[in-house]
Design brief:
The protein has 482 residues and is an alpha/beta fold. Helix content is 38%, strand content 21%. The chain contains 16 helices and 24 strands. Strands 1, 2, 3, 5, 13, 14 and 15 form a 7-stranded mixed β-sheet that branches. A hairpin with a 3-residue loop joins β1 and β2. The chain is globular. The N and C termini lie far apart (54 Å).
């Protein structure tokens, strides 16, 4: 058997599979997010560890976990986890969706300069990235900064607690802004800017590489075996892409989760001159280009639950299925935006509302606005010569056939669903299998385990009409924020 551990923002999930990738068991444990100030999001790293133990123990009541051959990880990216010389957590982890580092990003992008950052790391500074968080701690919590012995990411902490091995991988570390992505090494220039040492950082591995075995103390707590191999895994987007089989050149996946992600797998490193998209290492050992929207299905969830005051999504979709949202626009920037505009101060907006518009029209406008944001990201990917003709869709929004058809019409590509909904956790399982030599590489494992389920083809006439509406939508943002 093989175990995948998915360290999410709201919960930790574990899945158990057989050699064919069939999920035979799953458990999850939720935990809280702390919001100490406006725009701040934090978590206690030990909450992840306790959830890891509890979820695996729950699995152990149904399965003999000593038979697990390998375990790997998928984790929320960018979070800053700091340990002192006694391996104690210094402060709560600052999460990926924390926006306190606007000044630090301005310093990095303007004082250091975007072009220098791109030459050092392949990317520019975003508020979610780890490097600006380190600068924030250095400035605002200097006593804590002086105690730092180890700097790691969320999934690396759970792996460390399982193995006592201080390790990370290239895909997750790509989102720190102190990894030289193209050359797969820590950036000396960025370490100097941040005033940190390489000795404070973990050893780097490919996502499918073995870093060690389950420790005896962890084995006693969970019923796992000290012979079980631990494979480091990767960041949630790269591992989630593995879970969709998006591992070959020019393949595309789209995540319609709380955030929205357009993910293009690529053999070689691509520098993005504007820095509008992320150029990261992939969990398959190669590279990828990624655009991230902060509010995708999360925007629709907010609209339905907070504004319409209902949990009946079926009724809402039935309403909007009869709607046209003519001349009505929605900007989905409810918490700022990352790709491709990189503007933490951007905000959501309904535009051109009239008495003729219905509740269903507004619901449809939210979905269209999210899809336009995804098209904005796809256009940036196409601008560097990557031109995918199809995509695999995952996430909560991908459960709606209506949403996927409109996405196909707007992007003008075939949209496929797949034979599994496990995403990142399945990707972690696949990495564990590759690390245990059950498959020769990630590509061959994905071909065996993951298959298309349903296809949504674009309507060319609708696409032309949507393109006109998108161009106005794009100008709307520029008129408000430029």
């Amino acid at each position: 058997m093989f175990l995948g551990v998915d360290v999410g923002t709201s919960s930790l999930k574990v899945v158990l599979s057989d050699l064919k990738g069939k999920i035979i068991g799953t458990e999850s444990v939720s935990y809280k997010i702390s919001l100490p100030k406006e725009g701040w999001t934090e978590q206690n790293p030990d909450d992840w560890y306790r959830a890891e133990i509890k979820a695996i123990q729950k699995l152990g009541k149904k399965f003999d976990l000593s038979k697990i051959e390998g375990v790997s990880f998928c984790g929320q990216m960018h979070g800053l986890v700091l340990l002192d010389k006694n391996d104690k957590v210094i402060r709560p982890a600052i999460l990926w969706n924390d926006n306190r580092t606007i000044d630090e990003c301005k310093y990095l992008n303007e004082k250091i300069g975007k072009q220098k950052l791109i030459s050092y790391t392949g990317n520019i500074a975003f508020t979610g990235f780890t490097a600006p968080k380190i600068l924030w701690v250095k400035k605002h919590e200097p006593k804590l900064f002086s105690k730092i012995q180890k700097i790691m990411l969320p999934k690396d902490y759970t792996a460390y607690k399982m193995t006592n091995v201080f390790a990370s991988d290239f895909s997750d570390s790509s989102g720190t802004l102190y990894l030289d992505v193209q050359n797969k090494r820590w950036s000396d220039e960025m370490l100097h800017i941040l005033n940190i040492k390489e000795s404070q950082l973990p050893k780097l591995y490919e996502s499918y590489e073995v870093i060690g075995n389950v420790s005896s103390s962890f084995a006693k707590l969970t019923g796992m075996s000290i012979k079980t191999k631990v494979i480091i895994g990767g960041g949630d987007q790269a591992v989630g892409a593995v879970g969709t089989g998006t591992v070959e050149n020019n393949q595309l996946s789209i995540s319609l989760g709380t955030s929205g992600v357009v993910f293009a797998s690529n053999k070689t490193f691509n520098e993005i001159p504007t820095g509008s998209m992320h150029s990261f290492c992939h969990a398959n050992g190669q590279y990828h280009i990624m655009g991230v929207m902060l509010s995708a299905a999360g925007a629709f969830d907010w609209w339905v639950k907070e504004i319409l005051k209902t949990n009946n999504f079926d009724n809402v979709f039935e309403e909007l299925n009869k709607s046209k949202a003519e001349n009505l626009y929605f900007l989905p920037y409810l918490t700022g935006e990352r790709s491709p505009i990189n503007n933490p101060n951007a905000r959501g907006e309904f535009h051109k509302i009239s008495l003729s518009h219905t509740r269903g029209d507004m619901s449809l406008a939210v979905i269209e606005g999210v899809n336009f944001g995804l098209l904005d990201c796809l256009n940036s990917i196409k601008a560097i010569g990557i031109n995918p003709k199809e995509a695999r869709a995952i996430g909560g929004g991908a459960k709606s056939k209506l949403w996927l058809q409109k996405l196909a019409d707007i992007l003008n590509i075939n949209i496929h669903t797949i034979n599994t909904a496990e995403g990142g956790a399945l990707g972690a399982v696949i990495l564990a299998m590759v690390g245990c030599k059950k498959y020769k590489d990630v590509k061959s494992a994905c071909k065996t385990i993951i298959h298309d389920s349903q296809t949504f083809k674009p309507d060319s006439t609708k696409h032309k009409n949507y393109l006109i509406k998108f161009n106005y939508w794009k100008k709307l943002y520029l008129s408000l924020y430029r």
